[in-house]
Amino acid sequence: MPKLISLSADLKEAFQHLILQRTGLVIRPSDRDSFAKKISMRMDAVNFISPQDYYLLLESRTQESKEEWQNLVALLTNNESYFFRDKEQIHLLQNHILPKIIQKKQIEKTIRICSAGCSTGEEPYSLAIMLQELIPNYKQWQLSVFGIDINQIAINSARKAIYSPWSFRGVSEVIKGQYFQQVNQQYQLEPRIKNMVQFHLVNLVQDEFPFNDIDLFICRNVFIYFNAPAITKVVNKIYHALNPDGYLLTGHAELSGQNLSQFHRLSFSQSLIYQRRKEGEKQQEIRQPLTVKELTIPQFKPIKPAKTLPKPITVKTDPVPVKKQPIISPSPIKKEPVKPTVNKLLETAKNFIEQERYQAALEQFQQILDINSNHTDAAYWIAQIYANQGRYQDAILYCERLLKIDSLAIAPHYLLARIAEETGKLEEAKYLLKKIIYLDPNSVAAYLDLTHIYTQEGDERRAIKMYQESLNILQMLPPETPIVERGNLTASQLLLQLS
């Protein structure tokens, strides 16, 4: 066990500045104790007694220094990974982004994807598997996946493509059996997948990328290690590496507050993704419509019967003239059409959503509200469709309408929090998420969203606390409990995904 060294404030700051300068990695206040331990470990490994001498080694440009940087970086970065990590973003890639890229590339039949911060290779290999799954005639295509990382030890492991069972948590036995061969207690990736992926040692901040013409650049849970100038520098490099209309996918809320004028923002229920703008194009924020399977039906608490009828809540619309009926009606020439029931209108609206006819669905939901102004499901569907289309003010109006009906309803509070987070109003988002936790102490989604916000703000103490609370709740819930705000994943599935 190495002896823990004592670093003066000046020397600690010097180490942190040097690491930031060379790698872009920020040592946050909550990590400073563990940082001193890691410096001690490396000093012990290379037989240094003086931290000043070790600093001079890192500062030099010798081969010995280069090798030591690799060992230090391996300690400073998190190499935790597993196949098909973050089911929501995997769903987004598999069902939206990759099919669009494949459709666009039908003629030239060339796709190039980069996985930055690839660690031991699970993410780039997952992408390669998805491409083969989505392209039946993949042998006629040129499919290239690049895995890049600052950690040479992780890169060496990735190139071997041998994994323990822990890398497959949440992966179906079908995928494991189709693409891996079991060797003793480990799993060897099939050559047809392994050969699709190239690994490169790359310092995102310092190095030039060894490729260009990228269709999809994935950089998840990497920017959390960088400060704002480093993020700006790396995002600019990614922009120039992408094809026109190429995509950038990051971890949740990692680029919140950054100037991303070079990109269009595409908002899906699972994640935000950025698309490179062509020269001269104006920046757009596009809310992608969702299929009915992705929309969630809220669960509202039953409304207690009031002693007096509540006043109907109305949305400002142009007045519709009402035609007065004569006292004596003439004999009808034809029968009046039977007015549709609420249930029939609801069924029709959901069919329209399935067909992606969102305007038609909105008209059906509005008819329901004309019949029953307090119909919570219809009002929430309208709010969610508006939010998915980026019509945030309209969505907010309907959320407020719902809260007038039931001030304790979780679903509109959560949608308001998502809108606030999406529009950069993080203080408002935090207030709403804390209110949700007050109303429902077992709201896993609220704790996870707060985790993302606090991580983005650099408040790791609170982020860790929120993350741990979400894990505690998931462990207490019955395994099959659906988590509505997380695509109806069960508690056990989400726990596996987060672990």
Automatic annotation (TrEMBL):
Residues 1-279 form the CheR-type methyltransferase domain. One of its GO terms (molecular function) is protein-glutamate O-methyltransferase activity. It comes from Crocosphaera chwakensis CCY0110. Pfam families: CheR, TPR_16, TPR_7, TPR_8. Gene3D superfamilies: Chemotaxis receptor methyltransferase CheR, N-terminal domain (1.10.155.10), Tetratricopeptide repeat domain (1.25.40.10), Vaccinia Virus protein VP39 (3.40.50.150). PROSITE patterns: CHER, TPR. It catalyses: L-glutamyl-[protein] + S-adenosyl-L-methionine = [protein]-L-glutamate 5-O-methyl ester + S-adenosyl-L-homocysteine. This is protein-glutamate O-methyltransferase. TPR repeats lie at residues 342-375, 444-477. Keywords: Methyltransferase, S-adenosyl-L-methionine, TPR repeat, Transferase. Its EC number is 2.1.1.80. One of its GO terms (biological process) is methylation.
